[in-house]
Structure formats: structure tokens, C-alpha cells
Amino acid sequence: MSFPVTLRFKPSRRLWAALFFSHALSLIAIGMLALGVWASVLALIVLSLSLVGVWRMIETPVVVLQDDGGVLWQLEDGNEALGLLVSGTAFSWLVVLRLRFEPATGGKSVRVLVALADSLPAYDFRQLQVWSRWVASVRRAVQDAEGS
């Protein structure tokens, strides 16, 4: 793998379906509960706001993986944010990365990148899996060496 690796995400149909069906199951559960009218209305409003909020939070970024564990997250307005991998999980169908950003406004921010197999082309998804496992193993080796 030659660095940097640029990954262009697209919306995941599987993620949309999982979010939709989980909210639909919650709606059915609320309907089956013996709640009062006002409690049911309040629960439906909260559930609707939850779905809209989650819908807006899902991003399709352009991510550039670097050999030092760094990530360039390209934003919609053309700016880039540099992040370092905090931790991650890689399965054959799912990669979850937790990235630490230091915004210009100060403080620290952690963003979670969820990549399902349908959110990237197969080759790019495989590169993301290999990179996340490689960075995690290098970080563990460095931490073990420092701890000894």
C-alpha cells in the first residue's frame, strides 16, 4: 500500500436501512405500550427528532489515510481537518474508526467514522481495513515498548 490513500465515501444503503428499521421497531414498541396519549405523543416526537438528527449526522467524507496513523478529513467547504486514530474495529463487513481532532477553536473532538462494505468500492474498503489494523498493531507495539 502506498501512501497517502484517498477514500471517497458514498452513502451506505445498509446503514440507512438499519437506522430506519430500528426507528420503525421503536415506533411499533411505543404503539404497543399502554401509555397515555400525551406520553405517546411525546415519545413519537422524540423518536422523530432522533431520526432526523441521526439522518443529518451521517456524512460522506473524503478521507486521506497517512502512514503515521494520521487522517485528513476533507470538509464540505474545502478545508481539511487532521486527526489521529484513537482506536478502531475492523470486521469483514464493517470498519469503525474513532479519530481525534483538535479544532482551531481549541479543545479536542472525537469523531466516529462508520464504514460499511457498501460505502466504499471493494478495493478501497479493503485498504481501509488493512490500514486500521496496521495502525492499531503499530500503536500497540510502540505502547508495549514504552511500557517495558
TrEMBL record:
TM region positions: 15-34, 41-58, 81-101
Name of the protein in question: Toxin CptA
Domain of life: Bacteria
Keywords: Membrane, Transmembrane, Transmembrane helix
Pfam families assigned: Cpta_toxin (PF07254)
